[in-house]
Amino acid sequence: MADKKPRYLQNNKDMAWSLIPLLLACLVIAAIAGQCSLRVGGPEAGEVPRIDLGASLQADANALAFPVRSPDVPDQWIPNSANRGPVSGSEFQSSTVGFVTENGNFLSLSQSDASEDELVRSRTEGSRVSAGGAEAIAGLNWVVYGNDDTEPYWVADLGDTRAMLTGSGSQEEFVALASATATAPVLDKR
């Protein structure tokens, strides 16, 4: 007699018994590689990465042809991102920094020599937003753009530059960043 069952006599039970060693081998390899974890309570928020806000803005001030301001944000806010680059679709440049607020919201400040329309168009990425209001904060008039499907965009004319605020922050957090931007000193080139 044959040692093996004929193929037509094999069933799901036989298949399950042959897959168990394969699954165990995969789990052992994943555990050795450290790429597998199980957290019963769900994921935990990690530490927010920090950047040196002063150094980032100073580097932008040195490299860009327009004045760059350094806002004094609340101490509980964590500066966590910085970017310098072209405003899409134009020859203008921008300096953008981002903050995580004490409530876990994100706000960004972009400074650019682009016009208000070009700056809004580049940041909204084709979303149809329109000016829906205005805020007067610390001597600056901020035009508020947005719609129900997008986050708000606040834009102010600083003379040689435009500033844009956007993010998931609350009204109070937007006001705090707008005030800090309005009163921020322009950095000297080094």
Brief digest:
This is DUF4245 domain-containing protein. This protein has 190 residues and is of the alpha+beta class.
Q: What letter string, H or E per element, gives the SSE order?
A: HHEEEHEEEEH
Mean pLDDT across residues: 88
Strand content: 25-35%
Span between N and C termini? 90 Å
Q: How many strand elements? A: 7
Return the CATH topology of the domain at 53-182: Phosphorylase Kinase, domain 1
Instruction: Compute the number of helices.
Output: 4
Query: What percent of residues adopt helix (DSSP H or I)?
Result: 25-40%
In CATH, the architecture of the domain at 53-182 is: 2-Layer Sandwich
Strand ordering within the main sheet: 1-2-3-7-6-5-4
Shape: elongated
Q: Which consecutive residue ranges, at least 5 long each, have pLDDT under 50?
A: none
What's the CATH H-level superfamily name of the domain at 53-182? MucB/RseB, C-terminal domain
Question: Over all CA atoms, what is the radius of gyration?
Answer: 27 Å
Strand count, sense and barrel status of the largest sheet are: 7 strands, antiparallel
Please report the first level of CATH classification, the CATH class of the domain at 53-182: Alpha Beta
Topology of this structure?
Blueprint: H1 12-33, H2 53-63, E1 78-86, E2 93-100, E3 106-112, H3 116-124, E4 130-137, E5 140-146, E6 153-157, E7 162-167, H4 171-182
Antiparallel strand pairs: 1-2, 2-3, 3-7, 4-5, 5-6, 6-7
Describe the structure.
It comes from Rhodococcoides corynebacterioides. This is DUF4245 domain-containing protein. InterPro entries: DUF4245. With 190 residues, the chain is α+β, with helices and mostly antiparallel strands. The protein has a domain at 53-182: 2-Layer Sandwich (Phosphorylase Kinase, domain 1), CATH 3.30.200. It contains 4 helices and 7 strands. The protein has a 7-stranded antiparallel sheet, sandwiched between helices. The longest helix is centred in the first third of the chain and has 22 residues, at 12-33. The protein is elongated. It starts with 11 loop residues before the first helix and ends in an 8-residue tail after the last helix. The model has no long low-confidence stretch (mean pLDDT 88).
